[in-house]
Structure to design on (275 residues):
């Protein structure tokens, strides 16, 4: 099953007798106005998803800024969104699918198989000339039962050991990877042995994912090859899911370190590399 859906295909499915559940994950680091943007205009029928509170848990600083939510909390949220066992789900945001990828990853990790991301995000829908609806959408409650563990997850210890036998990708911007700047976390730099793979390199100027062969070539140039394990992290586990999605499009399975740099940098005993 494809991990992506075009705006044209989504419009056709929304007009079908059994339309997909559509999730709007409007989120930008450091901002809290996603819901306001959603209310001002969204894909018809789309339900707003609060990334900070529904796609993440909250705990100690050592766990990172966006640790995985408790499975019971995620299940309650998914039912609120209207998801049942047989639901098809389509997810979008308005920023090149960076936040949508987190919802895609979480739902697949929790056992939902039919989950796709709107390729090109909300701008792709708008570019087709289709309408946006205003206001809130409150669907009938779903009945989905979620079970964790359907996608691989790395602990902090497994992540530390990963470069010894696999390729560990850092999805952050190059300047954060090098340690030139660090706007969010207590230490600057990257996990020793990691390779920089900015998530922005997965998409074109319109926010659409590169073709599968181009993504495969991109990650091959970073050391990804058949038989070699692949792991990914970022600042707090959001854009690393974008790398995992891009790799899945290219036919490569990858594990996610959810705590990412926000967890690693809060452990003073963990080494830091720069440059």
């Amino acid at each position: 099953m494809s991990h992506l859906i075009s705006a044209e295909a989504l419009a056709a499915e929304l007009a079908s007798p059994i339309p997909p559940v559509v999730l709007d994950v409007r989120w930008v680091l450091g901002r809290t106005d996603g819901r306001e943007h959603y209310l001002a205009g969204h894909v018809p029928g789309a339900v707003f998803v609060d990334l900070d509170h529904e796609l993440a848990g909250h705990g100690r600083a050592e766990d990172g800024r966006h640790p995985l939510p408790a499975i019971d909390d995620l299940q309650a949220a998914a039912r609120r969104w209207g998801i049942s066992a047989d639901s098809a789900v389509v997810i979008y945001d308005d920023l090149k699918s960076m936040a949508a990828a987190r919802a895609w990853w979480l739902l697949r990790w929790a056992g939902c198989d039919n989950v796709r991301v709107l390729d090109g995000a909300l701008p792709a829908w708008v570019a087709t000339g289709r309408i946006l609806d205003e206001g809130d959408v409150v669907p009938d409650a779903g009945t989905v039962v979620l079970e964790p563990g359907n996608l691989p997850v790395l602990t902090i210890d497994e992540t530390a050991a990963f470069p010894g036998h696999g390729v560990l990708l850092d999805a952050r911007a190059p300047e954060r990877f090098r340690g030139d700047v660090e706007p969010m976390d207590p230490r600057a730099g990257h996990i020793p042995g990691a390779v920089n793979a900015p998530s922005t390199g997965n998409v074109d100027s319109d926010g659409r994912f590169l073709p599968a062969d181009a993504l495969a070539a991109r990650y091959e140039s970073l050391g990804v090859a058949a038989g070699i394990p692949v792991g990914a992290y970022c600042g707090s586990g959001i854009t690393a899911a974008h790398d995992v999605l891009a790799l899945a499009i290219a036919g490569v399975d990858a594990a996610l370190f959810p705590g990412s740099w926000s967890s690693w940098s809060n452990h003073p005993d963990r080494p830091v590399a720069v440059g």
